[in-house]
Amino acid sequence: MIIFKKIKFKNFGSFGNAWTEIDLIKNTTTLVCGTNGSGKSFALLDSITFALFGKPFRKINLGQLNNSINKKECLVEIYFSVDKDEYKIIRGLGPKVFEIYKNDILLNQEAKKTDYQEILEEQILKMNYKTFTQVVILGSSSFVPFMQLTASDRRTVIENILDINIFTTMNLVLKTKLTIAKENISDIDNKLQLQEQRVEYQQKIVDNLKTSMKKDITKNKQEIEILEEENKNLFEKISLLENEKTEIENNLIKNIDTVRKKIKDSEKLISQASFKINEIQKEVNFYKENESCPRCKSELTEELKTDNINDLNKSLEEFNKNIVKAENLKDKNKTIEENYEISLDKIKEINDKIKFISWEIKTNKEKIDYKKNDIEESNKMQSDLDKEIALCKREKQLLVELQKEKEDLKEDFSYLKLAGNILKDNGVKIKIIKHYLPAMNKYINKYLKAMDFFVQFHIDEEFNEIIKSRHRDEFSYMNFSEGEKMRIDLSLLLAWREIARIKNSVNCNLLILDEIFDSSLDSVGIDEVLKLLNALGSKNNVFVISHKADQIVDKFKNTINFEKKNNFSRMTNL
User: Fold this and answer.
1) d(Cα 302, Cα 428) in Å, to the nearest integer?
2) Would the pLDDT of 570 be above 70?
């Protein structure tokens, strides 16, 4: 249970630089009175909500909380206990201050301001602003009664009172986890797709290596056989060419130089004989053309000419015979020489062929060696293949692990969805709310009856009200007068406090009623409410803010009066 003990402030609202302190626990009932603008609401409503939640209760700007004259060192301190722990909250403006003390030790302020506030609301107070105003405060013009809250806000209040807002928090956490789970499944799907591609790619490498190795070795062996067979045929060709060459060499004449000398001798003899023939022919022509000797002028007789010409013709005939003989000998030897040259050309041609075939054989041997090296390399590739096979196995194992991880994620996701269904508003929370609804309706009707408002009030799990009169006529909250609405609002507030006390969730000693006696309640209603408030017991400290102090002051154990002097509010006791 939260026991609010005191609130103190300075330079807050219309209050000046001197500390104003209000004891919140000394009396069970306290009347707070004063003229309009005297600072009643600043002193009790705005100060408490500002200290606890960082905002005023009324609809005023935060900056207006700082005293408009002093304009600095606005400070509010509230003291309370939760079980055995003592707390002090200091909140201020100009400069901004927000400190939480637990047993006089300042709590760690390294967190963000919003996180620091969450620690206060969720771990210490265990209620937020909206819930606080529903179980502690009733009746201000800025106050929104429970029945005028939205369905969502009604649910928030009830969940705080029943201390089941943890399920809402859990649901928010769960939604985050579901989002993360979906992202993880999507991520694992992408990883699986990528891993499947990697496995497929690696398997292709293995298959290609196997096929390539087998194909290359087979192909190289076949090509080696072809090359070796081709070299065998080439060697046979060389052998045949060598035999042919040997045969030609064996048939070559050994005295080619003698033959060539004979050719030259024959050519010389022919040349000499031809020269002689020309000389003789000139002499024959001389005798035929001249009648006398040009030198001696002696007469050349016919007989002389005939005899000389006959002798010369005989010589010509002899030389012509020698020329024919020499020509025949030359032609014979020339033929021998030509045959020799032809044989040499043939030998050269054979040698060229042998050389070319030998080059082919060498080239084939190099190809064979290259193919054998390829086979060796292919055999060495077995090591590479083993590595690729091992890598392929690892990739497949990773794929299996990812598939298992996906199955685990899907299983976790299904559990999270199941938990989500349980944590939804229509899940476990609605069951708890249904469990407490009879008690809620019981206490609401109890307090309505205590204020002589005889209607049957029923609220369902969706927080919709059904209100029936004695004659079973059915009404809604908005059908009633303001005074009747006030009775309903107060009954709800007291019912929530009772449920909170039973549940030990947002149970506290403080109850503030703001001007509920000043407008809508008639004298009978005022008496009934006062009777009800006095019956709440010693564990409750009720503060009633009212302008009707003269009419009800004797009904309270303590009275606090506020007045404004020289533009500053101050607290006085009547």
Assistant:
1) 172
2) yes
